[in-house]
Amino acid sequence: MGSKGVRETTDNGEEEMRKMSLLKKSILLVTSYSLLVTIIGCGYTTRSMIANKFKTIYITPFVNKIDITRETDAGYKYRIYRPMLETDITKKVTNKYLFDGNLRPVKTESADLILKGELVEFRRDPLRYTDNNEIEEYRINIVVNLSMWDKKENRLVWEENGFTGDTTYFTLTTNSQYKSEDVAVNDALDDLARRIVERTVEQW
User: Fold this and answer.
1) 73 is in which domain, residue-wise?
2) Are 33 and 41 within 8 A, CB to CB?
3) Which one of 10, 48, 112, 194 has the largest count of C-beta atoms within 10 Å of its C-beta?
4) What CATH number is attached to the domain comprising 138?
5) Are residues 27 and 81 in the same domain?
């Protein structure tokens, strides 16, 4: 083989080595970036959003604003009244904050944040009927208006109207998913409390 052929072979080999080196650098860069993102993601928690400034919360007893004197019409025929539901909401929300651990429920004088809430609607809507036109499945909705206040600065942090917790339940005991209305209401309360706490600790 002549000297020209040797040079071409050498040049081709060097070019291949350069390509391989560039590929390895690219893979290393992508891997390093992915690792960095993963590390940052693992270090990110909902606690970091609020713990630096807010550590305690006072849950004002929820107020029942359901108008039981209003005449029933087509739009509100499934709107009903359940005694002491506002008290049950207050207890559920307080317990959910205790369980979550990001904010500690305290008395109003020690609180960094104050949550105020109004119960505005409790609905039980039929979802499914049997062949005999019996109601087989209901959806329960518990609707509240919420506001979160920074107590030290006397400032409204956020406000949500029509905030809803819900669940569905089957009424026939022959159905494997049957549950009583009391159990269903408790499930809807759990859902509402969970949503409220999640709304509180997310980034504002």
Assistant:
1) 48-201
2) no
3) 112
4) 3.30.160.150
5) no
**Summary mean pLDDT of the chain:** 82
Give the model confidence (pLDDT) of 82-126 as tens digits: 889 999 999 999 999 999 999 999 999 999 999 999 999 999 999
Cβ count near 79 (within 10 Å): 20
- Counting the structural domains of the chain, the total is 2
124 and 138 in contact (C-beta within 8 Å)?
yes
Residue 102 DSSP symbol: S
Amino acid at 144: V
126 and 147 fall within a common domain: yes
Buried b (16+ CB within 10 A) or exposed e, 187-204: bbbebbbbbbbeebbeee
Pair (103, 56) in one structural domain: yes
> How far is it, in rounded angstroms, from Cα 106 to Cα 133?
50
- 79 and 175 belong to one structural domain: yes
| DSSP secondary structure, 117-146, as one string | EEEEEEEEEEEEE-TTS-EEEEEEEEEEEE
Residue 105 CA to residue 56 CA, distance in Å, equals: 6
Residue 61 and residue 27 in one domain: no
